[in-house]
């Protein structure tokens, strides 16, 4: 198990706040980092590469100001780059990211060895989304620093593997940083991920329901009102299998029980519209009861994570050990 050296001493809880399309922005990233959680955002959340570069500069400046004022280094931040041929901005967005020396790049929907090499040469880390063991092996062989096991129940594009299986299988061949994504909505589940063999948890849906998110009007209320049965797993929204909120599918005029898949993923034309009208969420949505600030949510995660680890230690008291010896 391995936590990146650049993360050591800068986290209050081992979490990466996932980069959420149309949701994550500078306010959410900065407040997560301030609270000791790695904040990230997708480059495509800005309409242009120039806008992406502006966000990078803003985030870096705000985090530097926090460190100067408090004397405490915030958690690192990261950017998600979609490595897919339909993403016509990839080369330009990568150049802006490298120029800004972003500490972490999260890659998804494709693997590019040249990109990995370029990020490493700039001093950054690469974490890669994987939904299958085969994809995990390829990414490990390509030299990524971390693997994000996007398991069954994760919001947005997700795989079908059970977390117990995914973590155990990936650990057989990968010694780098391993993150678990999928229905992690509280600190106890972060602790469970660590006990399974993951180094960190990758949390999306929970941070979607914060005051700093860019969530569309109505989404926050839908998140609070929804439960696991309101999640639909389908490739019909964007061309890649993912989890979406049933009420948003209905509101968009489609039948969640009768969906046909589009021909292919197309970031250039269809993706933004699909995600704007139909909202992603994970099966852990039932754990969302309110809309806190990102800082308060991070504090909850930290408190509950520590309490869960204390409880796990208490379970191994002398009588229990004697009983199972």
Give an overview of the whole structure:
The structure is a single chain. It contains 13 helices and eleven strands. With 325 residues, it is α/β, with parallel strands linked by helices. Helix 1 packs parallel to helix 2, helix 2 packs parallel to helix 3 and helix 7 packs across helix 12. The model has no long low-confidence stretch (mean pLDDT 92).
Output mean pLDDT: 92
Oligomeric form: single chain
Helix content: 40-55%
The poorly predicted ranges are none
N→C terminal distance: 26 Å
Largest sheet: 8 strands, parallel, barrel
| Alpha plus pi helix count | 13
User: What is the SS-derived class?
Assistant: alpha/beta
How does the SSE layout of this entry go?
Blueprint: E1 15-17, H1 26-34, E2 38-42, H2 49-70, E3 77-82, H3 90-99, E4 104-108, H4 113-121, E5 125-130, H5 133-142, E6 146-150, E7 156-157, H6 163-171, E8 177-181, H7 187-196, E9 200-203, H8 205-208, H9 219-225, E10 231-234, E11 242-245, H10 246-251, H11 271-277, H12 294-315, H13 318-324
Helix pairs in contact: 1-2, 2-3, 7-12
Question: Which keywords apply here?
Answer:
alpha/beta, 11 strands, 8-stranded parallel beta barrel, 3-stranded antiparallel beta sheet, 325 residues, 13 helices
What would a concise description of this structure say?
With 325 residues, this protein is of the alpha/beta class. It is 41% helix and 15% strand.
